[in-house]
Amino acid sequence: VQLQASGGGLVPPGGSLRLACAASGNYYSIGWFRQAPGKEREWVSCINRGDGGAYVTDSLKGRFTISRDNAGNTVFLQMNSLRPDDTAVYYCASSGSWCSTYAREYNYWGQGTQVTVSS
Questions:
Q1: How many angstroms separate the CA atoms of 85 and 117, rounded?
Q2: pLDDT value at residue 52
Q3: DSSP single-letter state for residue 58
Q4: What percent of the chain is helix, strand and coil (3-state, nearest 5)?
């Protein structure tokens, strides 16, 4: 599986970004994680390729939305009302199983895309 994350950048507080994860190969779910400087990696969201089941961590519900294109080859993370504490490197990862919040369940990882929220 190959994963390519894109869409990060610098955005002012309150702004929006849409991250994309282009995936090739066989996988069952795609997850998004983020890691801020000095902090542990945090699960953000995931979506199942088969049934389209989509999940967002409770603290980000209402601001972040995950979706996929019709072919299921690209997964998007729409991030609205961004805050400075959303600043992190965002990674997408693939799993051969259902969505999981555990990083150990994901076999392949993309290179990460930097999101910086600052005025």
A1: 8
A2: 87
A3: G
A4: 10, 50, 40
